[in-house]
Structure formats: C-alpha cells, structure tokens
Design brief:
The protein is α+β, with helices and mostly antiparallel strands. The protein folds into 2 domains: 213 residues, Endonuclease III, domain 1 (Orthogonal Bundle), CATH 1.10.340; 134 residues, Nucleoside Triphosphate Pyrophosphohydrolase (Alpha-Beta Complex). It contains 14 helices and 8 strands. Strands 1, 2, 3, 4, 5, 6, 7 and 8 form an 8-stranded mixed beta sheet that branches. The protein is elongated. The N terminus and C terminus are likely disordered.
Length: 375
Amino acid sequence: MSESVSVLDPARRDDFAPTVITWHQHRGRHDLPWQRSRDPYRIWLSEIMLQQTQVATVIPYFERFVTQFPSVTELAAAPLERVLELWSGLGYYSRARNLHAAACLIASRFQGVFPSEVSALETLPGVGRSTAGAIAAFGFGVSAPILDANVKRVLARWVALDGPLEASANQTKLWEIASELVPRAGVQAYTQGLMDLGALVCRARDPDCPICPLNRGCAAYAQGLTAQIPAAKSTRPKARRRATLLVLHHHGSILLRRRVGPGVWEGLWSLPQWDAPDARDEAIACARHYGKPDTILRWRSLEHEFTHYRLEADIYAIDLAGRIHEERGAKVAELWIDLAQAQGAALPAPIKRLLIGLYRASPMHRGDAQVHLNP
C-alpha cells in the first residue's frame, strides 16, 4: 500500500472543514431528537447511548430517558435500578451504570452544571476523549476533535492509512489528523457533518464514493483502496460459555435473581443461573425450596453473543404446584414478577424477550423432555 498523503498539505487541510460544513447544511441530519437544543445533558446522554449502537435503535430510548429524567440532577436522584429498567434492551449495560455514576458526580462535584472543558468532561465515568470532544463541541461550541468509529473510517480513507485502526501508532496519527482539521468556527456543523458522512456515505461496506464531497482529496479513493481501508480487524473465534437457566413458574409469576458483579449483566434481574451445561439436579433443588415441583421440562436453549464470548444456555422450566414463602437471606436478592410486567423490568434483552414470549404464547408445557416429578 502506498504511503499516506500528508494531512499537513495546506490546500487539502484548509478545504476539508468548509467542505464538510457545506455538505452537512444540505445533506446532513438535522432532525434527530438531541439536535433540538444545545443542552449538554441531552448531548451527553445521546453520545453515551450512541456508543456502539445505531441511531434508529437509540431514538426511542433517548426519548424515554429525557421524559423520565428531564435533567441531570433528576437522573442522579433516581435509583440505579430505575435507570437499568429504562436501559433494558439497549445493551452494554456498563454504559447505564456509568451514566448514573456520572450524573451523581455532576450533581455533587459540579453542582448540577456540566463542565465545558474537555479535560473536566473526561473525568466523568464512561466519557472518553472522543465523547468529551463531542459534548464540548455540540454543547459549548468548543473546537475539540472527535474520533468515533465513523470519523476514524473517514479520516483513514482520506489519508490512505496503512494498517489496522487499532494499532497504537495509527490511533496517535488519527488524533493528530483530527486535531489538525477541526475548525475554529462552525464546529457543531463540522462535527455532525463528519459523523454523518461516516454513517451515510463513507460506510464500512459499499461506501458511496461518487457522491462524497471529500472524494476529490481522498487518497484511498484516488488509489482505488476504499475496500481495503481501513484494514480488517484481526478477530479470534469467540469463547463459548455453557450455562443452565431456570424458569421457575407459579400461577403466572416467574422467579428472578439480581445479578451481582462484576459482569455484563451486573445489577440486572435475570433467571437463576448455573455456569454448567446441565444443572438439572440443581434446578430441581432450587424449585423444591419454594414448593412442590409439578413438572419439569428441558424447555429450550438460548444463544446470545456478547462482545468477547458466546453464551449457550439450556433452559429448564418448572411449574410449582404450590409455593412457600421463605426468606433466603441477604446474600441472594430475589423477587417474583408477573409475566405481564416483564416488559418494563430491568432485564437483559434476551431474558426479557424470552419472558415476553412466554407470556404471549404460554408455552410452559412444550419441550423435548417433560418429566413428572414425585418429590
């Protein structure tokens, strides 16, 4: 691959920001719900939600959040569980925990007022350099660079960057390029335009180079390398984790346990789980604690992709003929929830889908291995 074109070329550098700003005025996105004000709270909320998540997915979550928590102080005052309930289904739940922690920090350290300096914004949990730059640019008009996934791709192609984006040297170089190109004026339109170009035109697959406003100065386009840049990220096969989940059912209610950390689902309610591929005996023992198991069936399997591993779980469903009410002690946080309430609970997305489907279809007596018990 040929050498990268220097970003310090004055003609290319000076034309970059005005081109992006002009394109955004005519072709960019202007009707997103977080664009309706310069409230840094709404901007921060949208930037956290948009991390690793598509705009169309984020919009209804964003609107529910700002309706429930119109200000950062109201978010800080809310219980974490309520925040997790509203976040349920959006994934990457550490973002929700960091969101709540950051709101509490803003309410206490900054008296409920968002800081405008990038360095101060970076002290908030879950806010890195790029997110801090976006908040500063959109909320306060600060000429701060950003470098999210879309912007990395635009800049990497524009200079024909060699090698994977994740390489430390390339990360340093991309930040230097982003810092060099950010304008002193019109930074809001420039920042949004750069994000929009990456999302709408300079796509990861099948980029629409002929209509891109930057194509005249794009080194990858000139060299026919847009399909090769950025270089493909080296991936390893994901590790598999096997587990057993229990749907303990009694008169329309399901037993849930709160997940304790550390872990992806920390703080959420989920089904009782054993990190073993076949824990039928443990499931039966758990059921007997609450009452007399009527039927047990190996109901179905669950597969779910996480960032670093793949979960494969067998699900046992047990009906209780009767239930006893016995304290489990402080070590296990449990609750019985009506299936009709599952949609609004702080549940991981795959567990929520499973319980909603159970409520709608009532498939408790379907399965491949139903066994009647005589405890």
